Amino acid sequence: MPDVNQYSDEKEWMQACVPMVMDENGGDQAAAVGKCKGMWEGKGASKAFSAKSVMSCAEACRMCVAACIDCMRMCMMSTCDNKKALNACIDACHHCIAVCTFCATVCESGNLAEIEKACQDCIKACDECYKACGVCAEKCPDCAQVCTYCADACERCSYECKTLTGASGTPMAMKYRLRTSAVKALDDWRLDVNPVPFGSRYSADSDGQWFDATTDIMEKAFNTPLVIYQHGVKRGARGMADKPLVIGESIPNTWNKQSDGWHIEVLLDRTKEPAADIMKAAHKREVAVSSDSISHLARLEVGGKLIQYEKNKAGRIAVWPLAGFSLWELGNGNFRPANRMAVALPTMKAMYREAGLRFPVILDTPGVLSYADEAERRAKVKQIQLIAKKHMEKRS
User: Fold this and answer.
1) Contact status, residue 297 vs residue 363, Cβ threshold 8 Å
2) Domain count, the chain
3) Same-domain status, 156 and 200
4) Residue 263, domain extent
5) What is the reported pLDDT for 374?
6) What pTM, to 2 d.p., does this model score?
7) Secondary structure class of 326 (helix, strand, coil)
8) Is 206 exposed, middle or buried (0-12, 13-18, 19+ CB in 10 A)?
9) How does DSSP assign 266-293, residue by residue?
10) What is the pLDDT of the chain when averaged over all its residues?
């Protein structure tokens, strides 16, 4: 496909563009003329959008439409008593279908002049649909799976539109996921916690990392992960505590893999000062959770290969031995929610020892270098880098 910005005459552009589009679409001249005309009218604006990103956005919109249609059908057939949640989900899906269909059509037609507005409308509709589907999934078990799938499709669509147009801010879908999927109050001092929320590259954290349904958390080895307060940081984030504060205990044999992530039940220790505030915040869905693992056992999948976990490297978290997790109430000067933190093995063992818990016997993760070998490799790399740096300094 020729670049419209290299043409100064509309006639010359149409003569070059139309035959190529007809070859692609099976000879439909009217459609080819419309597409080329739209590209000419959007000339200049197209500099901001690559063909790949435009088609990726169109694909996400089409997938979102299909998911919303399925979600509407399921909600209409649902026998759930919560009609308010069902109707809100149906209305949101109906609106999202119309908006996403138009956005996909705009992207596929090449009418780049209208993409900005279409994507802005799509982001708003998808975020609202994500929220409605999330509520419906919680309230109506018989349609929870399809509502969760629809919510994920909306999240991807919102992400692609935001990425394409460079819209500022975090889409509501991602904010809503952080706010609603982590910690729920069950009864007095008991919580349902989701320390490993499933996502994708479309909902990755600031490091570009995410968990999914295939992530190995070694739940059998860590049947009762440690429950501490804010990664050992004092309340109000006023420096590190002398030792991590254990604020409760994981209830044995309550690991439960659900559609949105791994859930476990926690019993808070009412004798610990933050417990009452966390319980109160849980009723308002304002508790942060962040999982803790063991650094030399954790693995990232990057380009189809497993590597030892590195915090600032993007990829799917393939192995994450969930040795513990942190809870804390939002506000009061505390940290904003973090997704995860990997600590060294001696540190994690010490934390278990302080809590009076037995640390499980675990084997290294196969398929990559051992901890000692990896440390030796990194030391050699660092030495080579230092030698190269000195050599470059001498040459300069």
Assistant:
1) no
2) 4
3) no
4) 182-365
5) 53
6) 0.54
7) strand
8) exposed
9) EEE-TTSHHHHHHHHHHHTT-EEEEEEE
10) 78
